[in-house]
Amino acid sequence: MTETIQQAQENIVAEFAEFTDWEDRYARIIALGKKHPGIAEEFQTETFRVKGCQSTVHLHPKFENGIVYYEAGSDAMIVQGLIALLLRVYSGRTPEEIIRTPPDFIHQLGLTENLTMGRQNGLRAMVEQIKLYAVAFHAMGQSNQTN
Amino acid sequence: MTSTEPHHATILEPLDVQRVREDFPALHQQVNGHPLVYLDNAATAQKPRAVLDALQHYYENDNANVHRGVHMLSQRATDAYEAAREAVRAFLNVESEKEIVFVRGATEGINLVAQSFGRAFLRAGDEIVISHMEHHSNIVPWQLLCEAIGAKLRVIPINDRGELVLDDFDALLNERTRFVSILHTSNALGTVNPVEDIVRRVRAHNPEIRVLIDGCQAVQHTSVDVRALDCDFFVFSGHKLFGPTGIGVLYGRRELLEAMPPYQGGGDMIDRVSFDGSTWADLPNKFEAGTPHIAGAIGLGAAIDYVRALGIERIEARERELLAHGTAALESIPGLRLIGTAAHKTGVLSFIVDGIHPHDIGTLLDMRGIAVRVGHHCAQPVMQHFGVPATVRASLAFTNTSEELDRLAEGIRKAISMFQ
Ligand SMILES: Cc1ncc(COP(=O)(O)O)c(C=O)c1O
User: Fold this and answer.
1) Do A121 and B359 touch (CB under 8 A)?
2) Residue range B364-390, pLDDT digits in tens
3) Which fold has domain A5-142?
4) Neighbours of B147 (CB within 10 A)
5) What range does the domain containing B81 cover?
C-alpha cells in the first residue's frame, strides 16, 4: 500500500484543489469514473445492490488477512467516479481504519452540497454500507475469513 | 394536429410570459450561480402568489374546522372550502358539486375507486383494462384489487412513438370487462390519449363498463370537459395545477358514488353512529372522513381561478409553441433520442443520450441551474418498452420561455462534451 488512509484523503483533496472551476472538477470525476474498473458481473446482484441510490450501485466486500477490499460500480459515470474516490480511501484498509474514518474529504473537493450530501446519488448510502461491512468484519475479529 | 385545434385559441392575445412569471416567487432564484430554469413541472408545479395569498389569508383569518360549528369562523371556513369545491365543479364542467370529492391527490382518488367501487362491484374473473403507459398509481391499486378479489388486469399496448395501440382495443374488451382506467396525458412521454374516443368505444361495447380517466397531466395543459368526456370517474392532483400539495380531486358520477361504500370511516362522513351500525352522510361527505385539507382545497380553488383568468386556451397555445421550440432544439443534438414522439403530445420532453447515463446529464444540468427529473417517472413499464432504465425529462409549464429551452439544449451539449 503506497498511501495510508490519511494520505489518500489528503492527496485527493490536494488534487482537487488545483481545479479552478466546477467543470474541471466534474470532468475529473467523470475521467475517474471511466477509468474505474467497476464491479464484476457476478456481484451485480440484488444482494450487493446499495439501496437508496437513484442510479444502480453495487458494492462487494472481501476480507482477507485482516484487510477489507471493496469492489463497487455504478451505471452512472459521476457516481462511478465518486466510487473510485471512496475506494481509494476505504479499500485495502483494516476494519478499524474504516470505522474510524469519516468521509470528510468528500466535502473538501469543491463539489456541490447536492452532490456530496448524497441523498440522490447514494453517496451517503454507499459510505454507510462500506462502514457496515467493516463493523461486521471487525466483529469477526482476526479470523482470516473471506466473504 | 394544428388543423383540428379550435380557432379561438390562436386569435386570443398571447400570454405575457414575463409578466406571468412575476406571479411565481420561486422562479426568481439562483441555483448554483445561475438563474433557475424550472423544467420539472410534471412532478410538481410552482405556485403563483395568488395561491400563497389564499393559504395565508385562510390561516390568518378564517381558520376553523368545517361543517362543525355554529360560530363565525367555522362558517367562513366552510364557505371557503365549499366555494373551492364549486370552483372545481365548474372547472371540470360537471353537474353537481356533490360529485366532487376532495382527496389527498390522484393516487388517493384511484385507490378510493379501486377499493370502494372495486371491492363492492367487481368479482373474481372480472377484467380491468389499463394501458402500458400508466403511472404506477394507476397500476398498483388495480393489482392490489386483483389480488384481493381474483380479478384480472389487461393492458393496452403502446408503439415506439409512445402512443396507445388501439387497433385491437375492441378485442381487448370482452364480456368480463368491468372497468377501464386510462391516463389522459402521459407524465413519462407527454402523449395525449384519445380519451373521448376510448370512452365512446367502451360505451359502444357495453354501457355498464366503468371508465376512470387520470387527468393528472391534462388539467394544467388543456381544457377538460368531464361531462363531454362522459367518463365515470376523473382524478387529478392539485399540486400539478399550481395548487398546494396534499389536495386532489376525485370526480365520480353521482349514482356510482351513492352506491359505493365509504372508503374510510370517521368523523364528518356519518349521518348517525350507534353500536348497532352507522348510516352515511350525503355526498360528498361520505368520502371525506375526518378533518379535510381545508387550506389545501382553498389553495386549489385559488389556483383554478388563476388558471381560468389566464385562460386555458392561451396556456395551451403558449405551450404548443414551447414544445415545438424545445423539440427542435433537442432534436438538433447529435446522439440525443427523444422518448415519446406521439403525434399528439403536450408538456413533456423525455430523452436519453447515447452512452451517457440520464443521472449524469441531470447532475450536470443541475450545475447550470436547470432542474429536470431523472428516472423512470413512476412508469417502469414505459421504460421497459423502450429498453432504457431511465430517461431525462424536461416538463414544461406556460411560465417557461424559449430561452430556457435553449439553455437546456446548451446544457445538454456541454454535458455531452464533458464525456468526450
Ligand atoms: C399521470 C399521473 N398519474 C398519477 C400521478 C400521481 O399523482 P400524486 O402523486 O399527486 O398522487 C401522477 C404524478 O406524477 C401522474 O403524473
Assistant:
1) yes
2) 999 999 999 998 899 999 999 999 989
3) Sufe protein. Chain: A (3.90.1010)
4) 9
5) 52-308
